[in-house]
Design a protein that fits this description.
The structure is a single chain. The protein is α+β, with helices and mostly antiparallel strands. Helix content is about 45%, strand content about 15%. The strands form 2 sheets. Strands 5-3-2-1-7 form a 5-stranded mixed beta sheet. A two-stranded antiparallel sheet has the order 4-6. Helix 2 links the parallel strand 2 and strand 3 (about 70-75). Helix 5 (about 110-120) crosses helix 7, helix 7 (about 140-150) packs antiparallel against helix 9 (about 165-180) and helix 9 packs across helix 11 (about 205-215). It is globular and about 55 Å long. The termini are far apart. InterPro entries: AadA/Aad9, AadA_C, NT_sf, Polymerase_NTP_transf_dom. One of its GO terms (biological process) is response to antibiotic. It catalyses: streptomycin + ATP = 3''-O-adenylylstreptomycin + diphosphate; spectinomycin + ATP = 9-O-adenylylspectinomycin + diphosphate.
Length: about 250
């Protein structure tokens, strides 16, 4: 499918994330990074996004397709590295309704690519083209920290995480871990790390998020708005301390 739509512009395909880093969990999507040599035309963008709908599905059920998250980058837009980098295209199940109605996002700056490319360089499976360590420049520590901090700043009140409570809790745990240790860990590993450092009052929501992610518990986090808000405030404070420490050269 990618070759059919992207043709000779297709340079590399890398599989990363849960599929190669700790194994797919019940709710994991499949992360794919695609590198091309030229921007996509509007027609190619529309056709590729529409076709990806047929090979992605949510929720995961026995024997069903997995949800895909496909990110397309133009190589010269990220090499040499600059911040914020430009994302050419991103497909995910959260965009399904928009795609079905013909609403396709254009290329746009995306700070999250600093995190994505760091993950791909650290641990990815090369399906086509050169390894990620050869294809992409290292992301400077300050830019990675800034991207992580900017991500955490997106979540301020209940409306920002409603329906995504589990994912936001686990994302905050991962950001906290990375800013503190420099490592990028799977979601359940990051949650276990954070649980060892959290005040007891914040344990229940994160423990539930971790167990639900592993398929070991029911996800009832939407019924705990006060506990969610308290955890987010605490985690944001720790993340800010870690970010400022990096800027001061303490980490």
């Amino acid at each position: 499918m990618l070759r059919r739509h992207l043709g000779e512009t297709l340079q590399a395909i890398h599989l990363f994330g849960s599929a190669v880093d700790g194994g797919l969990k019940p709710h994991s999507d499949i992360d794919v990074l695609v590198t091309v040599s030229a921007p996509l035309t509007a027609a190619t963008r529309q056709a590729l996004m529409t076709d990806l709908l047929s090979v992605s599905a949510w929720p995961v059920t026995e024997g069903s397709l997995r949800p895909l998250e496909v990110t397309v980058l133009v190589h010269d837009a990220v090499v040499p590295w600059r911040y914020p980098p430009l994302r050419e295209l991103q497909f995910g199940e959260w965009l399904r309704e928009d795609i079905e109605h013909g609403r396709i996002e254009p290329a746009a700056p995306d700070h999250d690519l600093a995190i994505l490319l760091t993950k791909a360089r650290q641990h990815s499976l090369c399906l086509m083209g050169p390894p990620a360590t050869e294809l992409f420049d290292p992301v400077p520590q300050a830019d990675l920290a800034r991207a992580l901090y900017d991500t955490a700043l997106q979540w301020n009140d209940e409306a920002d995480w409603q329906g995504e409570e589990r994912n936001i809790l686990l994302a905050l745990a991962r950001i906290w871990l990375t800013l503190t240790t420099g490592e990028i860990a799977p979601k359940d590993t990051a949650a276990a790390w954070a649980l060892q450092r959290l005040p007891e009052e914040h344990h229940p929501v994160l423990a539930t998020a971790r167990a639900a992610y592993l398929g070991e518990a029911e996800d009832d986090l939407g019924d705990r708005p006060s506990a969610m808000s308290a955890f987010v405030r605490y985690a944001r404070g720790e993340i800010e301390r870690g970010y400022l420490g990096i800027l001061r050269g303490e980490n």
